[in-house]
Every structure is written in C-alpha cells, then in structure tokens.
Amino acid sequence: MKRAERDWESHLTETPLGTGGFSMGTIRKVKERIAVQERRKKKKIVPLAAAALVAVILAAVVFRSEIGSTLASWNKPEPEKKPVISETETTTLKIGYLSGADDFMRKYGSPFVIRHPMARFSYSANVPKMGSLEDYREWIENEEPDLVQIPLGYLDELSSAGLLTDLDALLLRDGIDEQNFYEPVRRTIREAGAGKLYGMADKFSAYGLYYNRELFAEFGIPEPSGSLTWEETMGLAARFAGSEKNGDPVYGLSFGYRPGLSLNAVTVGQSLGLGTYAPDGLRSTLSSKAWTGLWSSFVQGYRDGWIGGEQGMEQGKSYPMKELYKLDPFLNGRSAMTFQPSDYGSNLAGAREMIGFDDEWALLPAPALDESARSGGQAMEIGYVFAIPSRSSQPDAAWELLKYILSPEQTERQTRTAPYALYTVKAETVDDSGPQDAYYEARYDTSLSLSSLKQKADPAYQALLNLAYKSGQERERDLLNGSLGVEPFLEQLDREAEETLRTLAAEKETRP
C-alpha cells in the first residue's frame, strides 16, 4: 500500500478507536477522574500518619519496662562457650592405636597435650593388629574406645553395623571445609563408607617410577614423561641392555636391594590389583593374560641383563643403612629407573649423605597395566583410618583430637621429621614444591585402590600370592635358562593354587 492511501488518519479530529480502543476525548476525561481521586488520597494520609505516631508513643509509655529489658538483652554479651576439653579437670580419652602407646604419644599425643594440658590417654587392650573383620567388631563393642585406628577395608561393614560415627555432621557443625583434605584420599574413604565419611587418614602411600636424568642423557635416550604402561616401561628399560659405566653394568630398571625375579613380579602384579582367583573361589587366575605378560617381561629382562639382578640383601641378616644403600643399583648411579614406594625419597636423601649419591633424578607415576588402565589412574594405599566409635563416651573430645591429627599444624610438625611421607592435609608454611609433587599430581583410581585393599585383607588372595612368590623363587633358574617356559610354569602354578583353594574352603567349613 502507498503512503498517500494510509494518510487518511491524519485528517481525523480524534485518534481512531484502533489506538487502545479509546478516543482522545475519552482518555482526557479518564485522566481528570484519576487526578481527583489522587487529591482525595493525599488528604487522608496526613491524619492517618498522625494517628500512627500517637499509637507508637502510647506503646512506648505502656511497654517501657518490656522494651528496656529486651534492649538490655540485646546488648548483653553472650556467655563463653565451655571448652570441649576442660582446662581445669582431667579428660581421659581411650585410644585404640595399632603401633602402641609410645608411638601414639610421639606422633600425636604429646603435641595435643601441649595444647590441652588436662588431656590424658589410656590405651585399649588387645588391639587386633592383624585381625579379621569380626575381631575388630568384637574389639570395638567390648572395649568402647573413643578413637580407633581400623583398616580401611573394614570401614563399610563396621559403619553399616552402626559402630562408627558419621564425621559429615561434625564437619558441618564446626564449619570445616572437607576440601582441606586431599581429594583422592577423601574420595576413596567416602566410597569405602558408601558415600559417607566415617573416618579419615592423615597419610597415604603409593608407588612411583624414579629415573636418573643423567643416565638418560649420557646414553642418548630421551627421558620418559607422563604416565607409562608397564609395556612401555620395559621397552624403555631394554634400551639400556649391555650398557656399562666405569666397567660396571648399567641397568634399565631395578628394584632396590631386593632384586629377585619372583618377588618383584609378584610385587608389581599386586600393585596393579591383579587377581589370583575367580569369583567362584575355586579357579586360579594366576595364568591370566595379564600375569603371563608380566612374568614374560620380567624373565626377558633378567635374562638379557637390563633388569638389575645383582646380589641383594640376605633374608634374616641385619644391615646398617649405608650397606643397604650400596646394594641398590639406582643409589649407585647404575640404574636408569627404579620402581619404589613413596617413602623412597628418604633412601635418596640418606644415600646422598652416606655414599655420595648426587645424580639428578625425577619421578613419574607408577606405570599402568595397559592403555585402558592408564586413563583410570594408579592405586593409592590407605592402610588404616582414624574413626570415632559410636559408643564413645566422649565423642566431642575425640573429635577435637582427630581435628588436631588432621590439622595443617600437625602436618607441618610431622613433615620436619618425615618429609617424604604423603600427608592428607597440606602444611601451612611448607614450600609448595618438593620431591613428592608427582604423587600429589598423579591420577588415582578409587575402585582400584579399594579392591587392592580388600585383596590384601583376603586370606585366600594372600595365600595364592605367597604361593606364586615361592614357586617362582624355586623355579627361577629354570625360567631364566629357558628350560622352563613362562606358560607351562603358570599352568602348573594354577593347579597348585586350585589345590590351595580347596584346602582353604574345607578349613572354612569346619571352622566353628
């Protein structure tokens, strides 16, 4: 439509009904009516405001005493909260600690008493150090301690039985952010408690792959990085085959002063959470693909000389630390890599002081079983947790002690004497960077960590693992000279393991 055809509206004396449906005349009358009503409202506001003011004055006169007492109560300071642990009366906490009274006082008790001079400790009798779940259940029920150390693997069953206090409510009550606890530790313990926090550990441990940067540079081999699989680790170690330094052999991989083929194959398999028997409890899995691959690579490495197989420490013999350091190829600058637990840093520091080891080294996470396991992460070990039994007669005082055990102040104190331990709570003033950083930056698999803990508490698992170690030790020479292949060895091991399983099952049936 052209504009000229639409300009008919401009000739009208009033707006057309299409604009809101009202003419300008009608709109003007409505505005006048609204203005009159507004003037009437304003006239009513003045007397209403005056009446309200009079009412307030009268109320102040009538309720003068009540108002005064209310204001006084607002200004009155709140009464001081009574301390959980008395400053004048003795508070005695009953402790269930696996390493005994002296160790507890040295690590936790003495510094806590400095802060709470009236705190005292008694110690629960008959702590089941290597006990079963039922042993721990009976111990907690009968002894009724205030703070206990229990295996993480038993946390679910003991909490389900109503024997442990849920720490979530205490954290919330005291405004403590659980983010202060190292996340993988917190996540693992929470999963062990079916989603709730029934305990906490002040330390954890893990395995790592230490490597000598100077040896990699000297032999022109690129340094490892990231997270390796065991196949990649063995392949890298094999590149050092036949290497020497000052006339002595240089190894691609070693295992400290415990160099045996059987011991180290079993140790690595256990660290990876490899099973030893099927879910039915009758069939051995010691000849599985994973175990076969692991034993095969170890046999090859020892046979070809790129895994350190020198004479290590003799069982039952006592050694000064300096002599032990001399038996470790890595601490003597003759091993490119070594697979060790997280406290190996103390050996590195000791070797530097006692035998002059000053090579530059670095640390990677523990190698994964395979590519699929690499993305999930490695296992961490949390052997025991501190927990407050639900029958504790002094749960708040026990919680004060546990809060101190898990405090940055306590971590800082322990770090001064044990700098290579892995702590759940970060110290406030300790340098952020350190040799253990790789352990805190590693990825941890919660399910793998928990399944490994349950395996260690399983008598059948341990029996078969011990059988594999002893059988491998007895047949090590045949395995290394080639007269016995890995597959026939593991098939025979399966038969022996299944006989062991049948014996264990029969013993269990006859047990009262």
TrEMBL record:
Record-linked InterPro entries: Bact_solute-bd_prot1, SBP
Key word Transmembrane present = yes
Chain ranges passing through the membrane: 45-63
Keywords noted in UniProt? Membrane, Transmembrane, Transmembrane helix
Q: Does the keyword Lyase apply?
A: no
Q: Which SUPFAM superfamilies match?
A: Periplasmic binding protein-like II
Specify the protein name. Extracellular solute-binding protein
